[in-house]
């Protein structure tokens, strides 16, 4: 199936770059807005930890199923329509997540929320590949930096509104208004077309696309480890008080965001291959330091170095996908996005199994070895 090419003479410019940044912000903002709602949903539905863990898989399932479909739809109907529909799904889901009190409704709503996030995340990366290529310069790290900024703003903003005494529904209403305002600003300049490449609706990634996808899986696995296990590690292994355990992920997220916002300049000066090699080395050293350090202060430094190292690897890999010719980018971009999400979803669970069988320290050291593998593999990527 071929893309609609009535807009082929059009070349994306600054307005399309702006709309891409806004769409990345929406993706990060919408996802993070859900995090402060989790305890409320757990209490309303009377869920135990095990049931909550299974419930949260519905979000990932919705995202992973939506990603390859969104690539096909973006090619046929254009990025703009898919991004608008995906954003509307997010806006419809969030108020339900703030009020739902039964398990079946939460399952259905989280699946819809995940589908909206998956559609937006996959399609905005496809648009980013097209816009960056048209610009002739490195822009991907800056795009992904807006996702990180959105994540910080969403989590902090909703938490602040809840702390001020607003109900979850009113806090989420403010989020929805902001998302819709951002969408109204971006929509006129979202790409009305998708990739001009053709291919089947679904295809198993192979060749360099599979190679890139595996590297994305590892980096996202490290990110998932930071999100789900850094606090546990600091409290159980480094004797840090529970009230301060979130500092590990905060250190990682801060350096990740700053690194991405500065990333386009870094990539231009160092080159894409060096960014992958040095990033993998920094991340591996940081993970090893956080794991083996004698005190929690050095562990925080290690987590910060993991953020520095990981910050620009995935954006560079997305740029590489836009340059390969093994698979159509309308299939390749959703494929590596899906593999990345699989790393976030499956990785923390695997870490839990390893920690149960041996120790959390061993699990983190295995991630260190995988990050070293990313650094070694970086020399083979054509960017």
TrEMBL record:
Query: Could you tell me what this protein is called?
Result: Fucose permease
Q: Which GO terms describe its cellular component?
A: membrane
InterPro entries in the cross-refs: MFS, MFS_dom, MFS_trans_sf, MFS_Transporter
- Record organism: Pseudomonas taetrolens
Annotated membrane-spanning segments are 22-41, 53-75, 82-100, 106-131, 143-164, 170-191, 203-223, 243-263, 275-294, 300-321, 333-354, 360-378
What CDD domains is this protein classified in? MFS_MosC_like
PROSITE patterns with a match to the protein in the record? MFS
Instruction: Tell where it localizes.
Output: Membrane
Using the record's annotation, list all stretches that form the Major facilitator superfamily (MFS) profile domain: 16-383
The UniProt entry lists membrane topology as:
Multi-pass membrane protein
**Which one of the record's GO molecular function terms can you name?**
transmembrane transporter activity
Q: What is the lineage of its organism?
A: Bacteria, Pseudomonadati, Pseudomonadota, Gammaproteobacteria, Pseudomonadales
For this UniProt entry, which residues form the secretion signal?
none
> What keywords would UniProt list here?
Membrane, Transmembrane, Transmembrane helix
